[in-house]
Amino acid sequence: MNFFKRTVPLFIAFTMGVMMAFQYYVPHEMSQSLLKIVSRWGITIGGFAVFLGAYSLFHLHLTKIKRKLSGWGYSIFVFFGAGITIIFGLYNGGEFFWNDKQEGTMFEWIYFNVQVPAGATMFSILAFFMASAAYRTFKARTNEATILLIAAIIVMLGRVPIGTMISQYIPVAADWIMSVPNMAAKRGILIGVSIGAIATSLKIIFGIERAYLGGGD
């Protein structure tokens, strides 16, 4: 069984990883066609992740309801909301799901009057968390925090009309901070992330990283 659980997935990961890495350096029509085919397969397989995600969500909330865990009452609304949405989605305004999507259906009403406001509310709450995090970060407890605080004040003033009213140099300084130190930091982070992605990819290709097999070793 280890052959099918370990060896075959490792062989597939190594083969496809090497092929996809080298296809970038082979500008041949066959190589480009292979990339398109594999990309389509990736999108198709990724679609099945929706079903896995739905199963995981329902299993989690069903377990909370069975065990009467904290907040289990909210889990009932998950099944209620998902059931109503799925039913109206399949109903498709009376044309059912095998026909083209209809306009002005109850499914659209749920999306624009429930889903969109709920998402906007969530992001609005995140704004308060960001403000709280910014307050804690910008406390001038160290020299680095003081520099960060001064830079943030200059950038914020440089992005509003009152900054120009105070001094014409504030917008110039804000642009310099954004285009020089900020851009250098962003590029440094991007380079670090890219190196980390390459290292992780190599570990997966050569079978060093095997967490995706489920064993964690």
SSE pattern, N- to C-terminal: HHHHHHHH
Radius of gyration (CA) equals 26 Å
Helix fraction bin: over 70%
Low-confidence stretches: none
For the sheet with most strands, the description reads: none
In terms of structural class, how would the helical and strand content be classed?
A: mainly alpha
Overall average residue pLDDT? 87
* DSSP strand count: 0
Describe the structure.
With 217 residues, this protein is an all-alpha fold. Helices cover 79% and strands 0% of the residues. It has eight helices and no strands. It has helices at residues 2-23, 29-67, 72-91, 106-137, 143-158, 161-166, 169-179, 181-205. α1 crosses α8 (181-205), α5 packs across α7 (169-179) and α7 (169-179) packs parallel to α8 (181-205). The protein is extended. The model has no long low-confidence stretch (mean pLDDT 87).
List the main descriptive attributes of the protein structure presented here.
mainly alpha, 8 helices, 217 residues
Topology readout:
Elements: H1 2-23, H2 29-67, H3 72-91, H4 106-137, H5 143-158, H6 161-166, H7 169-179, H8 181-205
Outline of the structure:
The protein is 79% helix and 0% strand. It is an all-alpha fold.
